[in-house]
Design a protein that fits this description.
This protein has eleven helices and 13 strands. By secondary structure, it is of the alpha+beta class. A six-stranded antiparallel beta sheet has the order 3-2-1-6-5-4, with helices on both faces. Strands 8-10-11-13-12 form a five-stranded mixed beta sheet, with helices on one face. Strands 7-9 form a two-stranded antiparallel ribbon. Helix 5 packs parallel to helix 6 and helix 8 packs parallel to helix 9.
């Protein structure tokens, strides 16, 4: 199959249950995601607030450290310390990772406490970044090269000295990451559990809809095309509660089934009346038609000379009466078959009927080539079938007549009879022009003609194949047609006669 054909192939739609489960999972995922984002942002804000409080306290200690250093010195008049380590880092209670920069009188003291609590010097890049902060006393977040993310605050005292203090965010970030991982794990487990519970609950809640669908399926499988129809199937009363959506569907289906049953009963009654009328009319027409034919023959047999025009008129009267008699007989037969009249049930040699039918066809159509195929000479003859010999003979005659009328002179018609499994298969094949699709799809309908003409020379009554189909169906058989230009085959399958039959 080409890629274009594959792309045009319709994708299978999800069932309602699957779509509802998907919607539930999407809603759960959305709620979990919103809750996760909100709780993570709240946690991070809380941790940052705590760090800012510690940072404010550390900044105050850092501002007081030089003064305390001088007060604790032996000589208070001694100059401020000129070491590279800020005085604040020497105070007790400073957290690991605390960064302090102190700038006064053109001297800059900077450093940070490592994991062991020892003071380490800052690099020039780190120092430049800290000195670039605005001393407004507001904490900000920044990334110190090689040290990571920090919260820092820069302030100046009354003497104009600059103090910058920074605390690491590593612990807060690790806490947020761990919290986020736990949230994701809990969310995934919650989605799995929610999906399972949703599947179970939706399956239970949608069982009434399954029962409604099962009822509709059983009705769809019932033979509603012909005969008296009684639709006993109904949706259970428990599934027709108008207070629920499924109950509304069940109640509507029950009302529809009742309406359909009433309509089909009315249709069957109408068809029965039409069949009875056709049967009665056909039966009543047989007597006057026989009288017309009899008087026409009587006129032609008069001893007195009959004018030529009158003789031709009587010939036409007799011919049309004969044709009308055949039409009436066909309509009467169809009416009897529609009414389900019992057929004779005897063993019928279908092969023998085929021999007689082909012999008659030789006489009726000498301009055609007729073949009979009953298998190899030493093979077993085809099995008999159970049925009405007269009607089955009519099937063969109608099929061969159809082949003779609708194929040009010189066409070859082959009749074969074979045993195939539990069936006897009759095939009538010709090499004529074939049957076009618009006609082939309605070939076994009544009054279907190969052309629109209604005269005897070019057209027919259109009942021949309809009778074939009705007779074969009455014998529990099937008939199919396969036609292409140069090969048209009618295949009749009938059950083989068995000891039980």
């Amino acid at each position: 199959m080409s890629e274009a054909a594959s792309s045009r192939r319709p994708r299978g739609r999800w069932t309602l249950r699957r779509r509802l489960v998907a919607v539930v999972l999407i809603l759960l995922a959305a709620v979990a995601a919103v809750m996760g984002v909100v709780s993570t942002v709240a946690l991070r804000s809380s941790l940052i607030g705590q760090i800012d409080d510690r940072l404010s306290a550390a900044s105050q200690r850092a501002q007081q450290a030089p003064q305390r250093f001088q007060e604790d010195a032996p000589d208070p008049s001694a100059p401020r310390p000129s070491t590279q380590t800020p005085p604040a880092l020497g105070l007790p209670g400073q957290d690991v990772g605390t960064v302090n920069v102190y700038q006064f009188d053109g001297i800059t003291l900077s450093g940070y406490l490592d994991d062991n609590g020892d003071s380490q010097e800052l690099t020039d890049a780190q120092l430049d970044l800290l000195l670039s902060l605005t001393p407004d006393g507001d904490p900000i977040t920044l990334d110190l090269p090689d040290l990571g993310s920090y919260r820092a605050v820069a302030v100046t005292n009354a003497d104009g000295d600059l103090s910058v203090t920074a605390l690491p965010l590593a612990d807060a970030t690790a806490t947020v990451d761990a919290f986020l991982a736990v949230e994701i794990a809990v969310g995934v487990v919650g989605l799995l559990v929610g999906g399972g519970l949703a599947t179970v609950l939706l399956r239970r809640e949608l069982r009434p809809l399954d029962r409604v669908a099962a009822t509709a399926t059983r009705v769809a499988e019932m033979p509603l095309a012909r005969g008296a129809v009684q639709i006993a199937e109904r949706v259970p009363e428990a599934d027709t509660d108008p207070g629920t959506e499924v109950g509304k569907v069940g109640s509507a289906l029950n009302r529809m089934l009742g309406h359909v049953e009433s309509a089909l009963s009315a249709r069957h009654e109408s068809e029965t009346q039409v069949r009875r009328f056709v049967a009665d009319a056909s039966h009543e027409l047989r007597t006057p038609l026989a009288s017309i034919r009899g008087y026409a023959e009587l006129v032609q047999r008069l001893p007195e000379p009959v004018p030529q025009d009158a003789r031709r008129a009587m010939d036409r009267v007799e011919s049309e009466a004969t044709r009308m008699t055949g039409l009436v007989e066909d309509m009467l037969l169809l009416a009897r078959l529609d009414a389900g009249r019992d057929l004779d049930q005897t063993e019928v040699d279908l092969a023998g009927l085929a021999v007689d039918a082909v012999a008659d066809a030789h006489v009726a159509g000498p301009d055609h080539v007729w073949h009979l195929d009953l298998g190899e000479e030493d093979a077993e003859p085809p099995s008999p079938v159970i049925g009405d010999e007269h009607r089955l003979r009519q099937v063969l005659l109608n099929l061969l007549s159809n082949a003779r009328v609708h194929t040009p002179p010189g066409s070859t018609v082959t009749v074969s009879v074979r045993d195939e499994g539990t069936q006897v298969v009759l095939r009538v094949r010709d090499d004529g022009p074939g049957i076009a699709e618009p006609l082939r799809s309605r070939l076994f309908e009544r009054f279907t003609r190969g052309d629109e003409s209604r005269n005897r020379a070019a057209g027919s009554t259109g009942l021949g194949l309809a009778i074939v189909h009705a007779v074969v169906t009455a014998h529990s058989g099937t008939i199919e047609v396969d036609s292409t230009p140069g090969a048209t085959t009618f295949t009749v399958r009938l059950p083989r006669a068995t000891a039980e039959a």
